[in-house]
Amino acid sequence: MLQIYNTLTKQKSAFTPLKAGEISMYVCGMTVYDYCHIGHARVMVSFDVITRFLRSQGWKVNYVRNITDVDDKILQRAKQNDESMQQLTERMIAAMHEDEKRLFVLPPDQEPRATGHIQGIIDITQILIDKGYAYAASNGDVYYRVAKFEGYGKLTNKNIDELRAGARVAINDIKENPIDFVLWKAAREGEVSWESPWGNGRPGWHIECSAMSKHCLGDNFDIHGGGPDLPFPHHENEIAQSEAANGCAFANLWMHAGAVRVNSEKMSKSLGNFFTIRDVLQQYNPEVVRLFLASVHYRSYIDYSEASLKEAKVKLERFYQALRDVSPQAAELDNKYHSQFTQAMNDDFNTPKAIAVLFELVNELNTANRQKLATAPALAAQLLSLADSIGLLQQDPTEFLQGEAKEGEISPQQIEVLIEERKVARSNKDFAESDRIRDALLQGGVVLKDTREGTSWFREG
RNA sequence: GGCGCGAUGACAGAGUGGUUAUGUAGCGGACUGCAACUCCGUCCACGCCGGUUCGAUUCCGACUCGCGCCUCCA
């Protein structure tokens, strides 16, 4: 039975889809004004793991993740770079797709862009005005009348009076109430804009998601997800917009990934302590990053550090070492791993526990390999199949372990030559020479492994 | 101040009302010419104080400490 934690109810409960066997899911994606960082990677990978696993269980998942391609930051950055908004966003979207692909993140089923849904945004805004939930201000902006929406704050336990009292919102005489937020922004000189009943302008930040989710999934859908800083105000505002406009419940279940920290401090754009995905991938195999992210439950914070990345690398080496010496062959197996793995994942996507099960499986596989048991190929196939359901271990073991020679590193051909020389030395019992060669390779990060069948090697991080 | 989350062995990180998490590191063995890989064994634990209970790391309450959101940020 699938159980998921719901931010709205603050508890884990059995998942019930709107349509049997199907799941409609909307996840807030990137605002494309810069390269994606590890925080983005966490959201991408978390929901990728979730989607893959659900599909492996037979769920039909319709996964939508939007792109925000018009907003203040984008306009500002484009101006700084002296390029058009479109040039900037196209460039960043291409980069994002590249990053995702490298991280083995499958594309969502639909990837709507805000600029492609301006009419939908205008339509919702008009409905909200008609129903009294929004008003056009004197300057051409349109605002949401927060106090009018009864359920405001239900996702994050806010109440309107306290929000107003603590209002760190800029005083603005144009608004009826400081906590009202903008649905439509009047065009400013030289900025991109679209025609609307309230004059030329562009969408506010929250309204696009109401429009795109409605278009792709309808008024009411199963799951809405996003990053740790989105519940307030973004998702709270989405609820206010969509439920007021549509007159029905919005998302049934809300999922939020935890934060990525660096040195125990939240990683964020404003603190400037972020690492981009491409930076990290210069140093680590993409799957290392994936395993690092999956090593912690998706709702907990995760600490980014050299040590934790290295640890993920060592873990992967253990997996691939086990897989290198056997040819997987699927066969019936009567063991506990499949059910334990599935149970862990069905329990709010407990990847750390699921991965622990994989390690137990590896242990049995290694023993089977050592003892040349007939079960080894089946165990290997089982490991691959379970790992595949969360997007892990799909690389060729030897390729993973040997890696690509980086700048200045010794090539596979050179390594093979040295291994051959060492073999000769060993057969002559010239262990001094043999050890010299091994030490020299180790200096270059290459570790040798002698087996009855011969010597293999891998690169050490 | 409001809302919410967390505190597990050397480190990372799951989980459970009474029984081994898991990975890395350490220690002792096996394998090896010696190593590496691998296997076997093993040390180290549940912030603090009360309560409930036959029994609590696990449930309840207080406390201490840490963190997130409340403002653009995944």
What are the key terms here?
single chain, 461 residues, alpha/beta, four-stranded parallel β-sheet, four-stranded antiparallel β-sheet, 16 helices, 15 strands, 45% helix, RNA-binding
| Biggest β-sheet: strands ordered side by side in the sheet | 4-3-9-10
The tally of strands reads 15
**What gyration radius follows from the Cα positions, in whole Å?**
26 Å
Classify the helix fraction into a percent range. 40-55%
Structural class: alpha/beta
Largest sheet: 4 strands, parallel
| Share of β-strand residues | 5-15%
Q: Treating each run of at least 4 consecutive H or I residues as one helix, how many helices?
A: 16
Nearest-integer average pLDDT: 94
Low-pLDDT segments:
none
Shape: elongated
Distance between the termini: 40 Å
What does it look like?
It is a single chain. The strands form five sheets. The protein has a four-stranded parallel β-sheet with strand order 4-3-9-10, sandwiched between helices. Strands 5-6-7-8 form a four-stranded antiparallel β-sheet, with helices on one face. The chain has a three-stranded mixed β-sheet with strand order 12-11-13. The model has no long low-confidence stretch (mean pLDDT 94). A hairpin with a 4-residue loop joins strand 1 and strand 2. The radius of gyration is 26 Å and the shape is elongated. The chain has 461 residues and is α/β, with parallel strands linked by helices. It contains 16 helices and 15 strands. It binds one RNA strand of 74 nucleotides through helix 1, helix 5, helix 7, helix 10 and helix 12.
